[in-house]
Amino acid sequence: MTVGILGGGQLGLMLAEALRKLDTPVLVLEPDDEAPCAQRLAGVVEAPLDDARALTDFFSRCDRVTYDSENIPSAPLAPWASKLAPSLEVLRVSQHRAAEKTFLSTHGFRPVHFAVVTSSDSLHEAVRRFGLPCIVKSSLGGYDGKGQFRVRTEEDLATLPSNGGEWVLEEVLTLEQEVSCIVARDAAGRAFTFPVFENVHTAHILDVTVLPARVDVALQDEARRVALDLAAALRVVGLLTVEFFVGAGRDGQRRLFVNELAPRVHNSGHVTRQACTVSQFDVLARITSGVPVTPPELHPGGWCMGNLLGDVWLAQGRTGGPLDLSAWERFPQVVDVYLYGKREARPKRKMGHFVVHGATATEAADLARAFRAALMQG
User: Are residues 161 and 265 in the same domain?
Assistant: First the structure.
């Protein structure tokens, strides 16, 4: 049994590490020779993810194939759809915002109020009909805030792209919190969820993930039910991360809204490597390897994962390479620092993460912010 991974970023790297703990051979297809997998693993095929010859060779050497991002070309994968987990259909739905929102709405899951703008429509006129304020998102290629515009006024409207393409318009919520839930589902349809994660974003990029989530239990139970139902509706084999908003829309009613789907290991799930009895990476490794899976349990106390962006390196006067971790000595509650090995530090680029264990979730979150501030002070 050889498991292939399409994409060799940090998510692919941590998944490959989990697979190797099971003695499962791993093959990675990645076009960038400076990607984390290319830096640290053997068995990396360097080729574009839509290269027909490379894909033919790659799939011929793999029994099961998964991916570390939904933002990969899906059409070239059609000849080998039977080997993909999650499936090609799951990938197609989750990588296209219009398809994703339409699926959610059609199947009775609650996304925010939205409208689809096709390439033949005038984006500006569609926004006016939808009403301000709103969020304008490109249907393809958006992550970490890319391809998104907040439109509050006519002046904002004038800054929108005038070219074609498909867009999704979303209402602006009175947002309270953001949470996510990772559901695992095997080939027999057995499914379970990880604990619900509380996520705090800065400039559209995940800043910290907190466990246990500081959200009322009823909403957490609802999030887990919705995640399980979504995985069943999509017939997922592998992992599905469901991102939620907690807030009120134009009608003023507080609800749980489905925001996005990610059929893979997820940034918010990094904390499971220390906080849970089994991590998201271990679970996906077992499913793709055909090894029995067991539900995770949360270890006692509070946990927080903090992202380390390139801004931390730049604050230390570094453009890449090792990070000065001398501040770690003052923070024994930091139980793990994981750097991805990316050579160039840029603002907002994810370069690593760390995990903090505290007596409570709030204590862990406060310590995480203090630790990162100390790193940035050098």
Answer: no
Is the same domain home to 297 and 165? Answer: no
Coil vs helix vs strand at 100: helix
Q: What is the dihedral of CA 269, 228, 24, 6, to 10 degrees?
A: -70
Q: Which of 68, 84, 100 is the last residue of a domain?
A: 84
Report the CATH number at residue 178: 3.30.470.20
Distance, in Å, from the CA atom of 271 to the CA atom of 14, rounded to the nearest integer, reads 12
Q: Alpha-carbon distance 256 to 251, whole Å?
A: 14
Bond preceding residue 161 cis, omega within 30 of 0: no
Are residue 348 and residue 216 in the same domain, yes or no?
Answer: yes
Range(s) of the domain holding residue 58: 3-84
C-alpha to C-alpha distances, 133 to 129, 136, 140, 150, 151, nearest whole angstrom: 11, 10, 22, 7, 6
Contact call for residues 127 and 169 (beta carbons, < 8 A): yes
User: Does residue 53 share a domain with residue 155?
Assistant: no
| Strand ranges, E, within 109-225 | 114-117, 134-138, 148-151, 167-171, 174-185, 191-193, 197-202, 205-211
Residuewise pLDDT in 10s, the chain (378 residues): 999 999 999 999 999 999 999 999 999 999 999 999 999 998 899 999 999 999 999 999 999 999 999 999 999 999 999 999 999 999 999 999 999 999 999 999 999 999 999 887 889 899 999 999 999 999 987 666 678 899 999 898 888 887 668 999 999 999 999 999 999 999 999 999 999 999 999 999 999 999 999 999 999 999 999 999 999 999 999 999 999 999 999 899 999 999 999 999 999 999 999 999 999 999 999 999 999 999 999 999 999 999 999 999 999 999 999 999 999 999 999 999 999 999 999 999 999 999 999 999 999 999 999 999 999 996
Q: Whole-model pTM?
A: 0.96
Same domain? For 277 and 369 the reply is yes
- Are residues 97 and 135 in contact, defined by beta-carbon separation less than 8 angstroms? no
